[in-house]
UniProtKB/TrEMBL annotation:
This is Probable membrane transporter protein. Signal peptide: none annotated. The chain crosses the membrane at residues 44-60, 72-91, 97-116, 144-171, 177-198, 205-225, 237-256. Keywords: Cell membrane, Membrane, Plasmid, Transmembrane, Transmembrane helix. One of its GO terms (cellular component) is plasma membrane. Its main location: membrane. The keyword Membrane applies. Belongs to the 4-toluene sulfonate uptake permease (TSUP) (TC 2.A.102) family. The keyword Heme does not apply. It is found in: Cell membrane; Membrane. InterPro entries: TM_pro_TauE-like, TSUP/Inactive_protease-like. Pfam families: TauE.
């Protein structure tokens, strides 16, 4: 029964990932905790596995199209990976209820970002069409990278809803390059988070394989047909769903546990 439910939930998360990009992964941990009854320690590694593999698959066409700023990805990964291990360590010290309340807050921020997304591009750090003024923008990119890495380790989220605004609005990357660069950063941070969580977690590999397998398959299928869907409207409705799930997480954590 648990494996069948994992197959169904994984497919739903995968379809959202394929249609919306990284933002769909924000529901992976709640689906595993409240849908399958896993502990947070079991849910986070599974979420990171799904996010990492799905992002890797999504990054492949971006690599072929040369839509990745490798220097920026390197800066974010170099600062984010140590922060990911720090976030994992902090998460092990906190009660699950505290982490879940924090996760609900992150979900609200993610939902707001989805509703505010206008595709604007900043120019504060840009030099010409493709260059970046590193002396001016390192103080912006390093804290942003560390914050995203910390959230990845603590909550098991990819952080695309924070990475892309940082790359576009703060650092002036064009949206297609920002998306490709974000995917590479998510792969690096997710791999670090997965390694840091595997050491202390007891994982049900049957549920992991079922959830991750259908999530990845659903992501591939949905991304293939995604051009036929009104993604702007879908993103709005998904943001409302994220708010509802965040409210449920808060009520369940504070009043029902």
């Amino acid at each position: 029964m648990a494996v069948a439910l994992a197959l169904a939930l994984g497919a739903i998360i995968g379809i959202l990932l394929g249609l919306l990009g990284g933002g769909g992964s924000i529901l992976a941990v709640p689906a595993l905790v409240f849908g399958l009854g896993l502990s947070l320690e079991e849910a986070i590694p599974i979420s990171l596995l799904v996010i990492g593999v799905a992002s890797l698959i999504g990054a492949i066409p971006k690599i072929r199209q040369h839509q990745i700023n490798w220097r920026m990805a390197g800066v974010f990964a170099a600062c984010g990976i140590p922060a990911t291990f720090a976030g994992s360590a902090v998460g092990r010290l906190l009660p699950q209820s505290v982490v879940m309340i924090g996760f609900a807050a992150v979900m609200v921020v993610a939902g707001i970002r989805m509703l505010m997304d206008r595709g604007d591009t900043g120019t504060a750090c840009a030099v010409g069409d493709s260059g970046i003024d590193w002396r001016r923008c390192a103080p912006r990119s390093i804290p942003a990278a560390a914050a995203v890495g910390f959230l990845t380790g603590l909550f098991g989220v990819g952080g695309g809803f924070l990475i892309i605004p940082a790359l576009v609005l703060m650092l002036g990357l064009q949206m297609p390059v920002a998306i490709g660069t974000s995917l590479v950063i998510i792969v690096a941070n997710s791999a670090a988070g997965l390694i840091s969580h595997l050491s202390g977690a007891s994982i049900d590999w049957a549920i992991t394989a079922a959830f991750a397998g259908t999530a990845i398959a659903g992501s591939l299928i949905a991304s293939h047909f995604g051009t036929r869907v009104d993604t702007d409207r879908l993103q709005r409705w998904f943001a409302y769903l994220v708010f509802v799930v965040a409210a449920y997480v808060l009520v369940d954590t504070i009043f029902l546990r």
